[in-house]
Amino acid sequence: MYAVIKTGGKQYRVQAGDLLVVEKLDGEPGAEVAFGDVLMLGDGEAITLGAPLVDGAQVSATLIETRKGEKVKIFKKIRRQGYRRTKGHRQHETVLRVTSVAGAGKTDKWDGTVDLTPKALLDARARNLKNVVAELEAASPAAPAKAKAPKAAAATDEAPAKKAAPKKAAAKSSDDAAV
Where are the domains of the chain? Predict the structure, then answer.
């Protein structure tokens, strides 16, 4: 079952379990968000259109994080005049996990649990930035604490020490003889 909802002046096609990035919404991580502006419901071949909204339909989601989006650069230039201006902008956005779609006497719920780990923490873990991971985990009490890995796994995480390359003394001495 899927639905088309309207939020932030835009329309989104969602179903239970989808990860959705929308314009900034108020709320703390872990809060439930309900969307009553459902424009259309679909269940296989059966489609229910609203005029303009579907009566009794509702989409529920869990707020994961509020963050800044990708950077947009604004660059203005007039050629041969020495006029150049650069500005940047980062729009605030909210990340949601859709938990249920209800309407037309049916409810489609998501079975999984919602992970509240922010994207910045996931990116820092992927890049193996241990000091940044420690800061973000301390600052974000909503993220669950992970148990320490066994010693065998910890040994593989460390990078092996690099050995210095042997010097090529023979090649260098032959070059000196030619000069």
Answer: 1-113, 116-146
